[in-house]
Amino acid sequence: MRELTLNMTDITKVYSTEDMDTHALRGIDLEIYKGDFVSICGPSGCGKSTLLSLLGLLDMPTSGKYFIGGTDVSHLNLSEAAYIRNEKIGFIFQSFNLIDELSVFDNIALPLRYRRNKVSEKDIEKKVTECLQIVDMTHRAQHKPNQLSGGQQQRIAIARALVGNPALLLVDEPTGNLDSRNGDAVMEMLQQLNANGTTLCMVTHDPRYADMAGRKLHLLDGKIIDSQTL
Question: Considering the domain boundaries, does residue 169 fall inside one?
Fold first, then answer.
């Protein structure tokens, strides 16, 4: 029986102002199993970014239930959400979000240094080195991010996302700041990670890359209107 990584049931997100309520998500039901590669696509304003924020515990739903590995994470406080996010979720962003003042090594090590249970420097060095090998960037460990190309920076961002051995990798427009050659290389790397067992959920505007996932969800007006197995 396949292991369920996360499930959402009847998730809504409403942004309220004095003048109006904006329904960003309307009754989202979603299951992602260990080893899945799910892409989420749809036009601007359809709710993709909101859904990714909820999946990554960067925001909380207005209503509905969200479980990660059997733990109810629907309504956590900020510190609880930060701990679970650090331990269970890896992020890959369009803009890389690396810290230019830190070396490549220290950028990758950062999630481990914020762990609730302290990780030894020896174990940090071992894990960072392993992740650098996965993305073929061991020779850049002591460089700063601004000394790297965009494609190299995204490889480092992938290594940082992997270092904590997350249950889920959330990928937000990973090729948006890359040319087509580097974009293709990053997508091939993500496919290989998935083939090796990493669970991925990716938001993308590019239909070619959306079709590289195993399952494609189409969002419109805050609802999943279509789900395809590819």
Answer: yes
pLDDT tens-digit readout, 138-188: 999 999 999 999 999 999 999 999 999 999 999 999 999 999 999 999 999
Q: Does 67 map to a domain? A: no
Domain count of the fold of the chain: 1
Residue 5 domain-assigned (yes or no): no
Query: The domain that contains 134 carries what CATH number?
Result: 3.40.50.300
Q: Which domain holds residue 222?
A: 35-48+77-229
Residue 30 lies in a domain: no
- Identity at 33, one-letter amino acid code: Y
State pLDDT tens for residues 88-125.
999 999 999 999 999 999 999 999 999 999 999 999 99
Calpha distance 48→193 (Å, rounded) = 23
